[in-house]
Amino acid sequence: MSEESTATANIGVVGLAVMGSNLARNLASREGNTVAVFNRSRGRTDTLVQEHPEAGFVPAYSYEDFAASLTTPRTAIIMVQAGKGTDAVIEELLRVFEPGDIIMDGGNANFQDTIAREARIRETGIHFVGTGISGGEEGALNGPSIMPGGSVESYKTLGPILESIAARAEDGAPCVTHIGTDGAGHFVKMVHNGIEYADMQLIAEAYDLIRRGTGKTPAEIADVFAQWNTGELSSYLIEITAEVLRQVDERTGKPLVDVILDQAGAKGTGAWTVQNALDLGVPVTGIAEATFARSLSSSGEQRAAAQGLAGPTPTPVDDPDAFIADVAQALFASKIIAYSQGFDEIVAGAAKYGWDIDKGEIAKIWRAGCIIRAQFLNTITDEYKKNPDLPALLLAPYFREHLESAQDAWRRVVVTAAQNGIPAPAFSSSLAYYDGLRSERLPAALVQGQRDFFGAHTYRRVDAEGSFHTLWSGDRSEVAQDPSWHSRSSPETPVGSGSPGPTGVSALPDAACSPPARASPRSRNRIGHPVRGSRVPDVRSGLGNSPDPSSGTGTSRTRCPTGGEPGWGARGVGGAA
Ligand SMILES: NC(=O)c1ccc[n+]([C@@H]2O[C@H](COP(=O)([O-])OP(=O)(O)OC[C@H]3O[C@@H](n4cnc5c(N)ncnc54)[C@H](OP(=O)(O)O)[C@@H]3O)[C@@H](O)[C@H]2O)c1
Fold it and tell me: What is the maximum alpha-carbon separation in the chain?
């Protein structure tokens, strides 16, 4: 490695395609920064340095030169193709960097990869900081919203540099904060992108409803969006929607939106958000519908084959102005749901991965620089400041009031969409989520009953502690799960069948206790029920088809002996649901 006397740069950028070169220019434009630049293929480095002499870049043509040009602790930002590209650059930097140096990955990495990379690199003494950067190429140049993870220690060095290049909110605050350790930054960036999907889909549905419901032209609808951008819906996405709708195609003279192929692409962060929400058990219905809506739009062959399927022809609404006002309310309400769900995912992710995340600070750094920048992020910050432990964002007084006052309009819009055959999946699912959350009783009780019927998955009661199972194939009496077996995933124990013990159960032979419910394929029908006449014991209830009590499948109520291997309790047999 070269002597440090040649080092002049306090920050370096590896990867000089559009994002990296813009970020490097942004860094160089801030006082106090000298920026070393390196790219795998030399051409990009030369072009950047030649086109921007004002930046005073320090070009490097090998990783050794790059490291030598950086003052210690060396700090490098990687802006290359996520995945293999990132790993290749990391390996090279690990070769030439030293303990205490900092490697920041500013690409769109999967947060799980970031967690793994951070753990591995930490052992070398080098800091690895996965950082979400939002705002596209324009943001990279003029000020993005930045979501760094990594160690608190590395943020002491990196923080001031990132604050110098971040977007500034109206109050002058830089749109960057230390999100949490290891993959927290990329996780929050992922959810940001998921919310972005939902926001875009909701806006697209609003446009479609107005167009098909009122017959207005794209240019006229652009005026509606421009008007909305002066109120509580004000946001970057509403602003650019007006611009896109106003655009006329040079070739045909038609509205541009009418000549763009209606198949939406995706780079995958929406899908990641939904996949992780499923793993975390968090309903992010708005983001999921938005992601699926893109998939549906791109199902070209199926859509072509489905043309001509029966459905209503949209009829113009009686009062266009009133309808547009309703759509605005429905849009705002659905947007509140999408953000509330996104924050739920952040809370669940923080709990699972051990991140100490300040939700109000996240809303704060999304106020400028990023794609979802919007007026109402200020309100989110305020509400979380007032009550950091809100059970759900939508329950904050401001949002609750808006939802409650918007709900009538929201319902009218969803009804109009359904009656006219206009797809509004994000509007509809957001309303269903709202109604689901506020319902005192849900049909989940019936689902639990079904699960217990076919899979002995048990249920809990509203009037007693513990888990219960109905002997569906027997006399349909109820049995309680023995709490002493609960921790061993054991089966339920019958209630009130006499001796022995408080639960009054007798021993079930081993043969009927262990994975036994798995019948041979031939003895089960397609949905997993024992085939009539087959001699598969019904171990769900301890009752079987055989009348032979010695087989443990008779009519007596039974239980597994202590040393048994039940394996068919709460998650055991039958259907997988
Ligand atoms: N936040 C945003 O809004 C946003 C927007 C766009 C992109 N991004 C993310 O930012 C990162 C950079 O994006 P981009 O569009 O500027 O570039 P990109 O097209 O994703 O990647 C091109 C760059 O990666 C380098 N590269 C690829 N494989 C490499 C390897 N094995 N070793 C070394 N370098 C390698 C290329 O070097 P060569 O020139 O030698 O081929 C080039 O500099 C990506 O992770 C992307 O997902 C973020």
Answer: 92
